[in-house]
Every structure is written in C-alpha cells, then in structure tokens.
Specification:
By secondary structure, this protein is mainly β. The chain is built from no helices and five strands. It is elongated, with a radius of gyration of 17 Å. The mean pLDDT is 92.
Length: 80
C-alpha cells in the first residue's frame, strides 16, 4: 500500500495484493489478486468521507471459470 496526502485534509491510498498458493495445495481458487485506489476527505476531526475503487481477479482450477470484476465503495466515518 502507498498513500499520499494531497493536502492536510485530503489523502489517497493505492494498493495491490496477491495470494498465489501452490496449485496442488488447494481445491478451490489457485490465485487471487486485488487492486484498490481510494480518496479520503477528513472533513474535521470527527468526520471522514471516502470513495474507493477495487478490482479483483480470481483464478480457479478447471472446470470452473475464472472470475473478475470491479467494486465501488463509499465510506462515512464518525469518530467520537
């Protein structure tokens, strides 16, 4: 994961993750990969609002088909 503050209240995070077990050790997925990017706004010390894009890919043993897709997530955080 990498993050960068665009200004004191606005920051972004980028990340990638891979799980690639030995094929002989699993009967399910043989590879999972994900990428994410988000933008978070600290409105004040108590409230944060954010948006995230995620891309996921999963490879399976035959005869199952591989799977991939995008996800969009929102966040509202209230700290007290």
């Amino acid at each position: 994961e990498f993050w960068y503050y665009l200004n004191p209240c606005l920051h972004t995070h980028l990340g990638d993750g891979v799980d690639d077990p030995l094929d002989r050790d699993t009967t399910g997925p043989v590879r999972n990969e994900t990428f994410f990017a988000n933008l978070l706004w600290d409105v004040n010390k108590s409230v944060r609002v954010g948006f995230e894009f995620t891309w996921r890919e999963t490879a399976y043993r035959a005869p199952l088909q591989d799977n991939q897709g995008a996800g969009f997530h929102t966040q509202v955080q209230w700290a007290f």
